[in-house]
Amino acid sequence: MVDQSSRLISLDAFRGLTIAFMILVNMPGSWSHVYVPLNHAKWFGCTPTDLVFPFFLFIVGVAMVFSLAKQTAHNKTRSQIYKRIVIRGAVIFALGLFINFYPSFSFEGLRVTGVLQRIGIAYVATAFLVVHTGLRAQVWLTAALLILYWAMMLLLPVPGHGIGNLTAEGNLAAWFDKLILGAHAYASSPTDPEGILSTMPSIATVLTGVLTGHLLRSGKERYEILGWMYFAGWVAIVVGLFWSIWFPLSKKLWTSSYVLFTSGAALQLFAVCYWLIEIKRWTKWAKPAIVYGTNAIAAYVLHILAIRTLFKVIKYTKADGSTATGYAWIYENLFASWAGAWPGSLAFAMANVLFWLGVMAIFYRKRIFIKV
Q1: pLDDT at site 6
Q2: CA pair distance 65, 212, nearest whole angstrom
Q3: 3-state class (DSSP) for residue 349
Q4: Does residue 295 surpass a pLDDT of 90?
Q5: Mean pLDDT to the nearest integer, 168-173
Q6: Of the candidates 229, 262, 284, which has an alpha carbon nearest to the alpha carbon of residue 13?
Q7: Which terminus has fewer CB within 10 Å in the chain: N or C?
Q8: 216: Cβ contacts below 8 Å, ≥ 6 apart
């Protein structure tokens, strides 16, 4: 039988691998010199980079099952559980808002949405669903969210663009976000990649993690759990690809096919971590990932704040009189100068992964774990 009281180290490792890859893709030396797998698909499709965010939401769902079960085991009342859910979601949302607020600290044109904001909203919505429903209802809710979003995107008319328009400018999600958010929507694209309407299927992504969490706590033998994860993962990938014929894979729209495909991919990678760590007990390889995974929020917030500081705060004047960012200075002088543009850009990103691993290792050794 599975020891349900022990910490799931494989989940920490999976979370750590995800945050390390996120830093790798978030911090190239130059956005003009990024290898294709380390960049998002332009609109439709799915690169390795497009797996990162849904992996995080999937992990949130898995961890949620264990967290809520622990609170129930400690005889927490419903009101205490509700309070914890709301506070945690609000703190995560506020952290995301602060990141967007920094360093200008101006409310004018402040983007309300973002990665942490979506995580906070999806966490709260899913946690309340988990508290009030059982496994069977959660399966049906996952399916319902995906089908409802698909129907809305393809069947509801968009003013000025008609029915079933999935272009960046003419889709329902973009129109809805502009209507609600106005000047506080994502300014760099007509479609906000973390917009309001597309948060609906992101809740389904969290629910796929919840369903996996139930499997892990089912009391089944570890090899049986592993087999079900592989099987469910491949089914989700195949169904997602089949659905993409009519509703293409798109991170920016968070399409229903994208939810299934990425959740299936998350199950496959998590299953590998589970097999190596929980079954084979091979843990030494995973120590760097565990270091990252036990302080994922800290690693995310700190590296984003560092990016914004180097881009928006630290400036220098070139010999020709033009102004450049501190970020560009580091890349050009410490990496591109000896490695060239493309390899130097990748080397810069890899150096940042190692740098933040060092920072998180200090936290880890001092037993500093920033939990939200």
Answers
A1: 54
A2: 9
A3: helix
A4: yes
A5: 94
A6: 284
A7: N
A8: 2, 8, 62, 65, 66, 225
| Lowest mean pLDDT across 1-15, 234-248, 269-283 | 1-15
Contact 305/294 with Cβ under 8 angstroms? no
Q: Reply yes or no on whether the pLDDT at 330 is more than 80.
A: yes
Q: 3-state DSSP call for residue 61?
A: helix
What span, in angstroms and rounded, lies between the C-alpha atoms of 191 and 83? 33
The band of 1, judged by pLDDT with boundaries at 50, 70 and 90, is very low
- In the chain, the DSSP E strands lie at 157-158, 162-163, 315-317, 323-325
3-state secondary structure of 109: coil
For residues 226-245, one letter each, b for 16 or more C-beta atoms within 10 angstroms of the residue's C-beta and e for the rest, the string is bebbbebbeebbeebeebbe
Examine the pLDDT at 320 and tell me if it is beyond 90: no
Helix, strand, or coil here: 353? Answer: helix
Q: Which residue has the tokens 């502009």?
A: 178
pLDDT value for 250? 97
Distance from first CA to last CA of the chain, Å, rounded? 31
- Largest Cα span, the chain: 69
pTM for the predicted model, two decimal places: 0.94
Q: Is 155 exposed, middle or buried (0-12, 13-18, 19+ CB in 10 A)?
A: exposed
Quick one: average pLDDT of 10-27? 97
Residues in the chain: 372
Which position has the token pair 């509700």?
Answer: 82
The token duo for 64 is 């949620």
DSSP 130-179: HHH--HHHHHHHHHHHHHHHHHHHHHSEETTTEES--STTTSHHHHHHHH
**Which amino acid is located at 314 in the chain?**
I
CA angle 199, 202, 204 (to 5 degrees): 125
What pLDDT score was predicted for residue 187?
77
Q: Is the peptide bond before 201 cis (omega within 30 degrees of 0)?
A: no
Does residue 5 carry a pLDDT above 60?
no
State which amino acid sits at residue 347.
A
Instruction: Return d(Cα 353, Cα 303) in angstroms, integer.
Output: 10
pLDDT in tens, 76-112: 889 999 999 999 999 999 999 999 999 988 888 889 9
